[in-house]
Structures are given as structure tokens and as C-alpha cells.
Amino acid sequence: MNFSENLNSNQSEYELLLNYKQSLLRESILEIIIYCLLFVIGGCANLIVLCKLISTIPRSSQMNYLLKHLTVADIIVIFVTITIEIIWRLTISWNTGQLSCKFVLTMRIFGLYLSSMILICISIDRYFAFVFPFSFNNAKQRNKRLLISAYLSSIALSIPQAFVYHIERHPIFPGFTQCMSDNYFTSKWKERMYNVTSLCGMYFVPLIVIVFCYSNILYTLHSNGASRKINMYMYKRMLVYTYFLVHNDDSNLTSNRSHLVHRAKRKTLKVALTITFAFIVCWTPYAFVVIWFQFDEQSARNSHPLIQTFLFLFAVSSSVVNPFVHSRHLLTDLRFRRAHNLTSTETVKQNTSCKVTQV
């Protein structure tokens, strides 16, 4: 009799757990569909960009050196972070143990950190290319140092995930395990400090650097000092270097200096605004949710689940948008290569210590 009761009790608990998982899965269907779309679009775009960067562009080209690493970081986000989100929502519970919980959750956030950090590197590189155009001889070493810093800081910011996340059992269904951060922090202020620090690494610091660098670039291009000191050859180099030449015909390379300066200003403004706007649109909703949960958790949890879902989705969408914002010149690869080869020929012909001319 006792055995029969235990069997019926186990069956009832199993059915309740199964129904509970199915209800969670039904709630996650829309999220899974959106993540799958992001996976397909972002995966294809980043792989195409990476293949073109490796096969069609000279490896010594500094203009694409950082882009390769940005694409790798975005591929990590697409094929690790987004894949984890899809599988996690399909399985609902975490069934692969404590070690995988810590490792996978660390890798899940590493790509996001790395993508943001390399955006910082690209902004600083472009800043030096425009504000200090004659420092291009040091660009290779500077970019290497920037990348090393980006990787090390991303690793340092990701490692705490291995300590914070752990396996927890459901209070009602002991057989239901989940990888989560609950019950790790001993006080609310510690959890808040950790989450705000993470948000600074992903959003606030990159945003400040991006706005600072591109604001100074625009100021430099629109100041009289820049027009007086930078000759036509240097503007050609800067245009190709910063990917602004690709939507123009090669004949524009022979334009007069005043037209070239005007074109540099116009295209720099357009691209600077595009890059800044794309970063803000992709990351601000996620930052808003994190801050909302830290300072008004009750109202945040009471909000509609779909609102939370869509706001969190914006964070990973940055890696889907990046190829179209930073690598769109590769979509017109033939024209870009002609412009790049022409500029490379000029570089051989002209002395790298070219004289400063009056514009």
C-alpha cells in the first residue's frame, strides 16, 4: 500500500513538473523564434564579413585589423551566447551540472564584454587616425596594445560569473534544477554593485569613449587648424582608412582638396552618428532593464514578461547590427579593393614623412 502511494505520489509530482516545464516553454516560444532569427541573420553576416576580411583584404591592412577581432567577438556572441539562450529556453531546466553552469555562463557574457571593448578600440584607433593623422606609423603597435587590453579586461570582467552562478533546486519541484545567481550575494548592495559594474563595462564606458572619440573627430575636421595642416594625400588615406570612400567612384580620388575636405566632414558626421546611434539603440534598453531591476525590483518583476524579454534581447542584437554598421564597405568589396590598392600604390610612391601643405 505504501509502495503504491509513493508511486502515485512520484507520478503526480512528475506530471506537475512536466506541466510546469511545458507552461514555461510555451511562454518562451516567441523568445526562441526571435533568438533564432538573430542567430541566422547575425551568423550569416558575421561569417561573410570574416571570410572577406581573411581572403580578400591584405592581412597587413591596419584598417581591418580591429574589424577582424570585432567580427570574432560578435561570432562568439552569436554562436555561444545566443545559442545558449535558445537551448536554455528549449530545455527550461539546467541538466548538465555545476561545472558546465559556471563555464557556460562565463562564456555567455565574455562575448558581450569583448564586443563592447573592441568597439572602444576601434573608436580610439579612428580618433588617432583623424586627430593625430601623422601617428599612423605607430598604429600597428597601438592596436595590438588596445586589443590585449580588451581581451584581458573582458576576461577579468567575465570570471566573476563563475562564482556568482551556481545550481539551485526549485523549492516545490526538487528535480527541477536551474543555473542562477540567486542566494549568492549576502546583501542587496553587493548584488547591486556587481550588476552596475558589469553594466559599466558593457555600456557606460564604451558609450563615453565612443561619444568622446567621434566628437573630437568631428571637431577636428570642422576646425580651421585641421584644414590647414592636413594635405590631400592624408585625407585620401584617412578616407580609405575609415571606410568612408566605399560608396564613391574611384574618380573622386582626384577631386580637389576643398571638395575632399568637405566630403570627409560630411561622411565622417554621417558614419559617426550611425555608429553612436546604433550602439545606443542596441544597448540602452538592456541598460534600462538592469537599472530598473536594481533600484525598483518589485515593479520590474510586475511588468509584462514580454517587455522584459524584448528589452533584454536588444543587448545581443548589437552583434547582429555591427557587421552592417562597421563592415558595410565589404558589401561593395570590389570597389573597396580598387580604392585600397590605389591608396597603397600612392603610399609606396610618396614619402611617409610627407610635408605639411597649406590647404
From TrEMBL:
Its main location: membrane. Residues 45-326 form the G-protein coupled receptors family 1 profile domain. GO terms for cellular component: plasma membrane. Keywords: Cell membrane, Membrane, Receptor, Transmembrane, Transmembrane helix. It comes from the Eukaryota. One of its GO terms (biological process) is cellular response to hormone stimulus. It is a multi-pass membrane protein. SUPFAM superfamilies: Family A G protein-coupled receptor-like. GO terms for molecular function: G protein-coupled receptor activity; peptide binding. It is found in: Cell membrane. The chain crosses the membrane at residues 32-54, 66-90, 110-134, 146-167, 196-219, 271-293, 305-325. PANTHER family: ADIPOKINETIC HORMONE RECEPTOR, ISOFORM C, NEUROPEPTIDE RECEPTOR-RELATED G-PROTEIN COUPLED RECEPTOR. Belongs to the G-protein coupled receptor 1 family. This is ACP receptor 2 long-like protein. It comes from Leptotrombidium deliense.
